[in-house]
Design brief:
Bound molecules: 2'-deoxycytidine-5'-monophosphate
Low-confidence stretches: 1-18
CATH topology: Rossmann fold
CATH architecture: 3-Layer(aba) Sandwich
CATH class: Alpha Beta
Strand content: 15-25%
Order of helices and strands: EHEHHEEEHHEHEHHEH
Number of helices: 9
Helix content: 40-55%
Distance between the termini: 15 Å
Radius of gyration: 18 Å
CATH superfamily: P-loop containing nucleotide triphosphate hydrolases
Number of strands: 8
Number of domains: 1
């Protein structure tokens, strides 16, 4: 495999600690704060953030728009093959473009929320998304978050983090996000969270699993800045280790 050390233009950079570009995989259950943390880590390192959940959401949105049933795996698989999905970093976070159209603001609607787990469960859809995700990570310098990144998409990522928090803490974060007026109790959110964990861990295709070589980070009681600082530190360590190995 070609590596950064083969390229004369960037090889000198490798002498500066931490400047060797690596790939970072961040996995974990719903509500663990993966996307916020991954985006901030990418900003700190000037890496590209890849939100794989947004890609499954984009396929779901396009399938719903095309009038396909969320049960129709064959048709949705064919659709996923044709779609051109791009993730573009912007000042207000990552934008998602499908066939050149910005769909970012429509990825978190109730309809998409309801159908996405089903769509993400189709092998044909996953196969295509994984292909795109690997292509995005080819040049290194990517922070990718999801459920199967360290175990399946980027098994060679130089840093893998499994991010979690207690079901109560994750429910509390979601509760604060939704606001008091949402009409859902904290207890109900906590029950739903536990049920989603069970489904994510138990599904046949790409279940949520901790890679054996992933660093485990329980963020219960930790602030975002602290979590980000810890991962940035691990990234610098990993970059140093790998740049030594390449020399
Ligand atoms: O992280 P999120 O809520 O945006 O994810 C949306 C859905 O996609 C959720 O059902 C989990 C699924 N997903 C997945 O199966 N694999 C990934 N790598 C990322 C998300």
């Amino acid at each position: 495999m070609a590596c950064a050390a083969d390229r004369e233009d960037i090889a000198p950079l490798m002498d500066a600690p931490g400047s060797y570009r690596i790939n970072i995989a961040i996995d974990g259950p719903a509500g663990a704060g993966k996307s916020t943390v991954a985006r901030l880590v990418a900003d700190a390192l000037q890496y590209v953030y890849v939100d794989t959940g947004a890609m499954y959401r984009a396929v779901t949105l396009m399938a719903l728009e095309a009038g396909l049933s969320p049960e129709d795996g064959e048709a949705i698989g064919r659709l996923a093959q044709r779609l051109h999905i791009e993730l573009i970093p912007g000042p207000d976070g990552q934008r998602v473009l499908v066939d050149g159209r910005d769909v970012t603001d429509r990825l978190r609607t109730h309809e998409v929320n309801r159908a996405v787990a089903r769509v993400a469960g189709f092998g044909s859809v996953r196969q295509r998304m994984v292909e795109l995700q690997r292509a995005m990570a080819k040049g290194k310098g990517v922070v990718m978050d999801g459920r199967d990144i360290g175990t399946h998409v980027l098994p060679d990522a130089e840093l893998k983090v499994f991010l979690t928090a207690s079901p109560r803490e994750r429910a509390l974060r979601r509760y604060r996000q939704l606001g008091e007026g949402a009409g859902v109790s904290l207890e109900q959110l906590e029950r739903e969270m536990a049920e989603r964990d069970r489904l994510d861990e138990g599904r046949e295709i790409a279940p949520l699993l901790r890679a054996p070589d992933a660093r485990f980070l329980d963020t219960t009681g930790m602030g975002i800045d602290e979590v980000v600082a810890r991962i940035v530190e691990w990234s610098r360590e990993a970059a140093r280790t790998f740049s030594e190995k390449e020399k």
